[in-house]
Amino acid sequence: MPATEADMQQRSALITGAASGIGQAAALRLHARGMQVLLVDRNEAVHQVAAALGPRARARVADLADAAQIEALCDAELRTGGCDILVNNAGIHPKRNGFILALEEISLDEWEQVLRVNVTAAFLLSRSLLGPMKERGWGRIINIASRAGRTWSDRAGTHYSTSKAALIGLTRKLGGDYARYGITANCICPGQIDTALARSSDASVLQHSARSAASGRIGTADEVASMIEYLCEDAAGFTTGAVLDVNGGAFIG
Ligand SMILES: NC(=O)c1ccc[n+]([C@@H]2O[C@H](COP(=O)([O-])OP(=O)(O)OC[C@H]3O[C@@H](n4cnc5c(N)ncnc54)[C@H](O)[C@@H]3O)[C@@H](O)[C@H]2O)c1
Which CATH number fits domain 5-246: 3.40.50.720, 1.10.3720.10, 3.90.1150.10, 3.40.720.10? Predict the structure, then answer.
């Protein structure tokens, strides 16, 4: 049965990294469908994004590299029943002067920071928030990985590529283990998308990305958000453990 608007309006979604880019675009789309949305980000600007959405939108500032802050966030959410949809979107990709670091230039601190934000946060949030989804027999976990977790890329740092490949692994395991509870877990792997994160690369890197996609351009945040919205539908209930490429045809098998 396709989801009715009434079904969608009963859902609540927690979206990380929602102060900008793909997370913000996802918050806009899910809010427009009538959902309650909680926007989480380390950037205080997340309050303005939620305020601009109006009723049914809340914001919380949290640094997802910090397990204690994730625990406090989850405790607060669980006191009000948790969420139906978890979008693990926050991510970082450290560069120097617009270019990636070679493996031998990456410090242990930087390596651990990337893994904490890009993978461990998704594990901790999923671990805490799966409980109410299981009880309700319905849930959606949507992880935003990257093309860089799928194939080798000379535009992605080793820590970033490793973290995104790990997020794909986490998604597959979650998708398989929780399908029987009505919970799906899927992973979106964007190619280059026009956001602040992409613009932290040198312009030549973005031009190369545009040239290497069959579409001849980079994507928009909303083109990823539309896939997130689809995965929230009841109609997407048979899609789980999937790795969905949104990359303008960067590699076509
Ligand atoms: N833009 C691209 O080309 C691209 C390509 C592939 C994958 N992605 C992935 O998409 C996701 C969203 O990225 P984006 O392009 O929208 O970038 P963005 O920089 O516009 O947004 C990322 C958001 O995450 C937040 N964030 C970062 N570290 C955080 C932390 N420790 N705690 C809480 N919030 C934190 C930032 O403040 C920011 O608002 C990321 O996981 C990224 O790896 C992006």
Answer: 3.40.50.720
